[in-house]
Amino acid sequence: MKVGSVLVSREEISARLAELGEQITVDYAGKDLLLVAVLKGAFMVMADLAREIKLAVDIDFMAVSSYGHATQTSGVVRILKDLDSEIAGRHILIVEDIIDSGLTLDYIRRNLEVRQPASLEIATLLLKKGIQRVPIHVKYVGFEIPPDFVIGYGLDLYGKMRNLPHVAVMVED
Ligand code: IMP
Ligand code: MG
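# inosinic acid complex -> structure
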């Protein structure tokens, strides 16, 4: 596998995150908002989206690992790092890089809901269209993309290429 063409450019990403940030700013005005990113993939979208939200938000991180093949989700999730913050009664927005099967996020969402936040919504930069294996409500979507494996802007292949400033598809050599 090698890096193929650009799927979403850095200009497209930053323009779209500005729009989402503006929308989030309106939707959460006057509320206590905690942004929760799932490491490691979402570190870049968290950094850029947070700067587009014109509210005094808190940020926190979770790390999970899914067992199984590197390019496919098994749906079995282990929490490697939990939130530092209590979330009961607070408005939580999960910030994700990509939703594929949706299994990881479904697990995280159910795990956080037990802690009784005031609200719990999801923002994702990328949503692979039509391949979710569980029904999942995503309030803020950056881009709907085809179900191909992509890398860059936080997304990795075997840990590498997260630092690409755009999203690219992987192609066969
Ligand atoms: P899901 O549980 O199938 O929705 O995917 C969970 C995680 O798999 C995502 O948060 C990413 O970390 C990773 N992932 C899914 N699709 C891709 C991809 O196309 N490239 C890189 N990582 C991906
Ligand atoms: Mg991820």
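# post-check
The CA atoms of residues 143 and 157 lie 20 Å apart.
Residues 38, 41-42, 97 surround magnesium ion (ligand 2) (CB under 6 Å).
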